[in-house]
Design a protein that fits this description.
The complex is a heterodimer of chains A (405) and B (271). Chain A is built from 13 helices and ten strands. Chain A is an alpha+beta fold and 405 residues long. Chain A has two domains: 181 residues, no CATH class; 207 residues, no CATH class. The radius of gyration of chain B is 19 Å and the shape is globular. The two termini of chain B are 15 Å apart. Classes of the chains: A alpha+beta (405), B alpha/beta (271).
Amino acid sequence: MASAFGNLVMAVRGIGSNWLRTLLTMLGVLIGVASVIVLLAIGTGSSQSIEKSIESLGSNTLTVFSGASSSSSSGTKIRNSTLNTASVSALSNSLNDPDVKSVSPVVTTSVTATYNGSSYSTSVIGSTASYLSAENYTVSAGRSISHADVADRAQVIDIGTSVASALFATGSDPLGKQIQLGSSEFTVVGLLASKGSSGLSNQDAVAIAPYTAVQDQLTGESASFSELLVQGKTPATLSLAESEVESTLASLNDTTVANLPFTVIDSASLLSTATSSSKTFTALLGWVAAVSLLVGAIGVMNIMLVTVTERTREIGIRKAIGARRRVILTQFLIESTVISFLGGIFGAFAGILVSHFKIDGVTPVLASYSIPLALGVAVSVGIVAGFYPAHRAASLRPIDALRYE
Amino acid sequence: MIAPSELEAPDHKAIDSTKPEPIIALKDIIKSYTMGGVEVLAIRGISLIVERGEFVAIMGTSGSGKSTLMNIVGCLDVPTSGHYRLDGVNIRHLDDLALSRIRNKKIGFVFQGFNLIPRMSAIHNVELPMTYSGVKPAERRKRALVALDMVGLGDRLSHFSSELSGGQQQRVAIARAMCTNPSLILADEPTGNLDSRSSAELMSLFTGLHDQGRTIVMITHEPDIAAYASRVVVLRDGEIVSDRPQGTSSAVSYELSPSGRYSFGDSGVES
């Protein structure tokens, strides 16, 4: 069309004739587009932080719990099986389980740790040296608990940064100090490097000691562990390791894999579950934002209907001097599209701006697709919402439109 | 003037090979409306021929059907029955798109209420019909400048209609009507909203256009305005009651013209 540019100029002039009204209409689209971008950024940000915290748990580990999951328990052959040192040594056999790197027995308890009048409630994990590497813990000062400590039932402990800062004054060195756990004393031999606070739990509020000492002093002597932490050799072979663990445990307990009295969970499946639930969450937020965009679209349609009514006479003149239906249709469609596109542009800026702030503890992460998506939706909103009013304008009979006062 | 019987010739295009086809040929035009379930006859059988170069005034009181006739002649409305040929084109059965093209190319409108588009400068208003017919921007600008110069508004190009007096607005409207070089200039009460001095200026513009050979049809109810035309058609109750030529230069009203020479029977369009 030869007059496409002229149409655009006319549209802008038409918009300019009633600034306040047009700005308010644009504001509707602006809020819609901005909320799409911000809410998608919040969704993306929170799902990324969940993924990060799950990855920090260790990305290639399996956790074996005693007790079968409800789906695999057949009811008739429930065995009161436990995870014990025999299980650990069977799983550590590299002939049966070539894809298992390490097996760490885990005993957990919650105690109040005290030192010099300061106290802190912490979870204590009794395990072996391999636990630290399997869970991605590193020692920033001192040393990790060792196999000798486990064999000696030594009352030594590695503490997380939250525990250290709660018990010890800043500047003082916790290494070598005796802290009170319940009624027993443990010597701090290492400080764990901070893993940061994940969305799930504070991973620095832990203390790791040899499981033998924890059983002796805190949980009481027992032959069984609450869980086993199995580290696979690589993330790629984790499913191989999982089936090896299952068959080893099945033969050890005289049963089949289907009737295994243990539950094996791998961190990857935990991750995918969390990822899919956070995707649902993000999509939900997106729909909420889409509703506000819809409200903006209704605003555009409303204002275009008012504009068409106001300019009935102008439409009559244009038709009388030879404007075709399509020209009138295009003119009003361009006008509504310009309104919603400008609203979309400003909305995108507003959305990007707001996404730089932390909202409700979540750091929003701009989803790269959200900006073209929101702008595309804004333009389609303009076309769709403008179509009916534009069609009405184009269908006016010139003599009726000219007679309109 | 052509007798109506000639219109019924099978080949309308070759009514008379020696004579050019009339600009307007109306035959037995009837227009009825339904208002509140009652059928109202606005035009009850009008036949009218307007030749190229004529300046015709159509007169009548309100309700005489002159506005309805003007809408039909201007292709803004279609008759209920009857035939209408505009500059050789049969208007019957034309769709919306074709009618808008006819209006754009063949008719220049001048309305009582000026009907310029607000928020558009004078020159843009004049350019608008050429925009719709796809004239190139440079050519558009050139022709609009010529037209505005001709109506004496060469120095008011970028003024908006709100910044122009009524007489100036109507001259912009004439420039707009002129610039597409239409077959017919159709003016609906062009002086209705103007004072007598602006009216006189405007009518001298029309007279000038007529002298250049333009065909003008003007609707008015003011006898002194109709006096500028070369022919006056009077409507009453949807029918033509009088149709007679008059001297173009005379500003005398038609009541004073020698009515004895032009009886109803002479007009040749009475059925």
